[in-house]
Amino acid sequence: QRRLGILAIVLAAWAYSRAIAGSDALADIGAVSFSALAVLAPALGFAIWRPQTPPRAVLAGLLAAVLAWCWLLLVPLLLDAGGQGPAWLREGPFGWRWLAPDAAFGLEGWSRLARALVLSLGLGFGLTAWLALRWGTRPAGQGGALERERLRALAGRFIAAERLQQLLGPAREAAAVDAASEAAVERELSAVLGAASTRLLLDAARRDTGSDLDSVAELVDEAAQALRFNQRVLEAALENMSQGISVVDRELRLVAWNARYAELFGFPPELLQVGRPVADLARHAIARGFLGGVDAEAAIARRLAHMRAGTPHLSERRLADGSIVEIRGNPMPGGGFVATFTDVTAFRRAEAELKSVAETLEQRVESRTAELAAAKAEAERANRAKSRFLAAVGHDLTQPLHAAQLFVHALAQRLRHSEYREAVDNIRGAIESAEGLLDGLTDISRLDAGGMLPQVEPFALRDWLAHLAAEFGVLARQRGLRLDAVACSAWVRSDPQLLRRVLQNFLANAVRYTREGRVLLGCRRRGDAIEIEVWDTGPGIRAEDQALIFEEFRRLQRGGQGLGLGLSIAERIARLLGHPLRLRSWPGRGTVFSICVPLDHAAADAAPTPTEAVEPGSALTVLVVDNEPEVVRGMRAVLEGWGCRVLGAATADEAERLLQVDDAQLWLLDYHLDDEAVGLDLLQRLRAGGRQRPCIVITADQGEAVRNAVQAAGAHLLHKPLKPLALRSLMRRLCGE
Questions:
Q1: What pTM, to 2 d.p., does this model score?
Q2: I want to staple 289 with a disulfide (CB 3.0 to 4.6 A). Which of 207, 320, 326, 504 is the partner?
Q3: Does residue 92 or residue 202 have the better pLDDT?
């Protein structure tokens, strides 16, 4: 039906447009359309400003207005579209001129549009108003007052019969409910159903009857049951909370609370009522001393001001019994305020105890820290004393060992009788063992004390490896071994002296434990690093022993000499330098120790072309300065055995006098001379006099200060006890410079 109605309206509009298309402009068509819409104005006005107007009166007025508009405007337009209109348009039907469309009610001078608009609006408004006055208020069943029995039957679904009897009184046949009784029933229903549901139900009762009203009542009943269930759930949740809760409306009257709230503040049951002003509750709490000695009215005014302003607040109050309550208030979106009251007494006590414990612990920590600091200072003093003792003992022991080593080396060069060679070798072995023990103890002491600081610099591996190979090549040949060294042109960044100590330990172990075969010293590239390796054909190391050999004083029971300090020192120096150390071994076949050192490409690019070294010989004159006469005699014996000429002196003045009458191509200076003089002072005086010669400083002092001073002076450093092979290798290198 709806579709047919739409189709009919569309066809009528099309027919009308075809009929008048040639007579009027488009603007006239729009004016006619708007005038038709204006006919609805009286009905809309009554619906907005006087909604109690009977619907039949509004419909009658609307129908009269539409008919008048069609008679006064639509009919004349349709007749004029077909040609000359009939005479009754001006004279009226049956001679009634006041009904003529073009002269209705004597409005002949008006346009058809204005006449139709004014008369249709006037007729619609007037007829609606007259019928509304005649019919009065809406009859029962159509929006009027509710009948008593009908309201009783409806409210009886939700209110007990006794209470309903009190509200409505005795039953009276066909009697309307007065406004007061209806309002009382509405309030009672609102407590059960809610205000919105009650209003909906009563409006439906005024409009509908029969099954429709029953359906509405059932729907409202279901909604009310869901509401009551949610209300019970909310009440159960509130009652089982450990916090006290109170809710007030926008007028600051109590609407909800739980038992914990009443328990915290001791409110009597008669005080906690819905609608009770929250100010009364605050006065009761202050009167009982729950908030301490405060100005009651000022405190109440502040709290009410917070609630009215909708400002969240958080505070704590200590009650008269000593308990502490945290009060947290927050505004509700629709107005009102909700406040929670939490007993934080246990928390605050625990917090105070924790603070006390923290303060006590802090005092204990400070006391223990002071004790530890004192113990650390004492340990550092003891460590420094130990280091000084070892340094002093090492220096005192080094001097005679140094001299003994020189004399033994000189004796071995001059000895021609093989029957005494074994005794000399035994003496040399004993001295070397003593030197190794002293060096190991000194290195361990310096590592423990943190006095061994790396001096990282770029240096070439070619001469560095050649020096090591020359030093240990002689030892290898004495044991019937062959030591092969593979030259390497790479430059690396490390501490050359400390790295040398690591490789010396590797080579010493390889020569000591290899009975036959050979030892190989070489390098492998590993990306941006060089891995320096020492291979041997010794007995190898079992897998379970490989982690043990780096412990101090750990020596595998395989014969040979040594105290088990070498590999421990090597591992700690490698860790100090940050160079990875690696061990691989195959029992019965051999072992390889290696250390990985970073490359220095920039230094390699700028490196000069190496020159061939010249073997020191008879043409070389060497100045030897040492305050120990035995050391001077031992150095003279060793150097003369190599074919050198020696100028020996015990003091700086004596050395200068010797150089005034003779010249030396190489200077060997002891660092510590008599009268607190040092060899570097002599070196400075000699260079100030215009002499420039390569210089080797020999000392028993292992300290970094000595090392840095020698390096800054442009000299070379060797430590006592001096190994003749190391001295010879360095001299060979310096003679070519």
A1: 0.39
A2: 320
A3: 202
